[in-house]
Amino acid sequence: MGFASRIMTIASVLCMTSLGKRGVATAFSVGSTPPSSYRRASSNSIASFGHECGKHVRLFSHATDSSVSSNNSSLNKNATQTPTPNSGYQDAKEKRFQKAKEKRRQFIGMAKAVDRGQTANRYNPGGNDGASFVAKSGLPDRTKPFLVLGIESSCDDTGAAVVRSDGVILGESLASQHEIHEAWGGVVPNLAKAAHEEKIDEVIARALEEAGLSSPADVDAIGVTVGPGLEICLRVGCNTAKALAQKYEKPFVGVHHLEAHILMARLPFDKEADTICTIPATDETHESQRAIQFPFLALLVSGGHCQLLKCMGVGKYSIIGGTLDDSLGEAFDKTARMLGLPIGGGGGPALEALARDGDPKAVTLPIPLQKRKKDCDFSYAGLKTAVKMKADQLRIERGLDSIEELSRQDKADVAASFQHTAIRHIEERLERAMIQLEKDEGTADIRSLAVVGGVAANSELRSRLDTICVKRSWNLFVPPPRLCTDQGSMSSWAAIERL
């Protein structure tokens, strides 16, 4: 098999196993809700990294009218129903439907991300021992620092970066689509896909140029996000990376988007930090550094995910808690939209900026899941509804026609109160997870917390979580704000960690 054929084979396998049938982004999905190519599926989560191949089949029971019309009443009275040729098939289908329905019922009220054995297929990189990786498209020379081109197109930002294996970002480029989607109040998939197609070559060229390289021939490997995300957007990046890997005969590395966020906490962006750890050289690899060592606890908060994970190694993660419904980022975005804030640059940053001028105690809001005292799961659907009801109540008191007509100060108070309560919910569940790890003999040595994902850029969240870590004598690791959101460096660095 030639090099191009090997690249095609591994790329096809990655796309089908990570993007699912018809390319739907289902990597690591264990939720019961079928993923959609029209939104970022919040159920696509790392679940020990449980993985479902995307064969979501909805069975419908069709009632058939077996009555026979006849003018002869005696014939109708004595007529017997004749079994249809496919009645056995219909019965079997109905049984499968009822069995699947009963299985779904077992997980009502449980976090969608947590693997409780409800999925048959799992993402298991490195085999059962977590170390038996197979590089079907080859490996770069790892005895010296090597370069990886990373490509990211999972949602509404086209990113590319060249990162060296010692953690130095040599060149990066990002094409934002904020102006395109602002008028629509959210990401429009077909517009996002078109923008990716228009900008991706330019973005890659700019990243290479900034790194002092003339073409992809100068890098040693190519990494690309293969899911989760918007399927039609993911395909743009995947197809581009596949074509470049074939053309220049470079190793191809498929990157899981959520793992890439987690691994960004290990990027040694501050070489002078006291916590920097050194990985000694071996016969096959050069000496390198990491900002945080395994194992550690990770809080992943983004527009589509809200999870607490125990991270034991590259490709080895288990969920401690996940969201029952909405993610933290989604709740921020929808609250910002309800208040009529400009969300071209993201609802979260807009709401955070407004909240700085508000009183976090002005509006009383319920902290979610107060009756669930044992687990570390999250829920934001109720809080989202509560803040809307409070804002509407304020609108009525002010005699206004819509919430958007509220004064800036009223909006600031609502925003600050929402942000305070949302973060308080995070604090409660996080401390519970910390206590569990501290008491468990197998995890008692874990004293590091990594906060990753787009919402990790929120300064109020970072400040309050730092206070918790100081109180409990934990170390806090948060990437710089620009590296918390989606960009090409995360794909490059995740590929380096794999290689």
Beta percentage is: 5-15%
Low-confidence stretches: 8-80
Distance between the amino and carboxyl termini = 22 Å
Biggest sheet descriptor: 5 strands, mixed
Rg calculated over all Cα atoms: 25 Å
The run of helices and strands is HHHEEEHHEHEHEEEEEHHHHEHEHH
Q: Please provide the count of β strands.
A: 12
Count every helix, treating DSSP H or I runs of 4 or more residues as helices.
Answer: 14
Mean pLDDT: 82
Helix content: 25-40%
Instruction: Please state the overall shape, judged from the principal axes of the Cα atoms.
Output: globular
Structural class: alpha/beta
Order of strands side by side in the largest beta sheet? 3-2-1-4-5
SSE layout:
Blueprint: H1 3-19, H2 73-78, H3 87-105, E1 147-152, E2 157-164, E3 169-176, H4 178-182, H5 189-210, E4 221-227, H6 231-248, E5 252-256, H7 257-263, E6 277-279, E7 288-290, E8 296-301, E9 306-313, E10 316-322, H8 328-338, H9 347-355, H10 381-398, H11 408-439, E11 448-452, H12 459-472, E12 475-477, H13 481-484, H14 488-498
Parallel strand pairs: 1-4, 4-5, 8-11, 11-12
Antiparallel strand pairs: 1-2, 2-3, 6-7, 8-9, 9-10
Helix pairs in contact: 1-6, 5-6, 7-14, 8-9, 8-10, 8-11, 9-11, 10-11
Tell me what the structure shows.
- With 499 residues, this protein is an alpha/beta fold.
- It contains 14 helices and twelve strands.
- It has helices spanning 3-19, 73-78, 87-105, 178-182, 189-210, 231-248, 257-263, 328-338, 347-355, 381-398, 408-439, 459-472, 481-484, 488-498; strands at 147-152, 157-164, 169-176, 221-227, 252-256, 277-279, 288-290, 296-301, 306-313, 316-322, 448-452, 475-477.
- The protein has a five-stranded mixed beta sheet with strand order 3-2-1-4-5, with helices on both faces. Strands 10-9-8-11-12 form a five-stranded mixed beta sheet. It has a two-stranded antiparallel sheet with strand order 6-7.
- The model is unreliable at 8-80 (pLDDT under 50).
